[in-house]
Amino acid sequence: MKSETQLLMALWIEARTRFSNQLKTLNEQDLRKKLSYSPNSVGFLIRHIGDVELLFAKNIFGSTEVKVTAKTVIEKKDTGEWTNLQNLNEYVNHSFETLKYIIEKQSDTDWESEITTIEFGTKTKAEALGRIISHSAYHAGQIAIVNKYGTV
What we know:
- The protein has one domain: dinb family like domain (Four Helix Bundle (Hemerythrin (Met), subunit A), Up-down Bundle), CATH 1.20.120.450.
- The protein contains five helices and two strands.
- Strand 1 and strand 2 form a beta hairpin.
- Helix 1 runs antiparallel to helix 4, helix 1 packs parallel to helix 5 and helix 2 packs parallel to helix 4.
């Protein structure tokens, strides 16, 4: 029988495929695509997912090793710098592995402990995991639409 941590890990990894599967088909030109009325490019959205995953590893799950400068969160807008596909892929692979590592360290009882953040108030760690799942899926949907209908 799988532990609660193993089950939640499997849930997060499966949900994240809505994002990670898209990375396999993108090229560097796709990173600059935007919808005419949208301020964010595909490259910005990829970087943003990585930034938030690292913030979750550090601030929600307590990883003391994580060093992150969440540029997309700090700037709150696309600065046009997220155009190197290899760098972005390395960044989101790093953010995935970092978050995966700290999630694996959680005990089954840790999921019931509460954390409080300015962004979303007080939640259990299990509820917070739901936030990162929905965050990545939300932006993965944006990436798909921008990539399909956007222009450079």
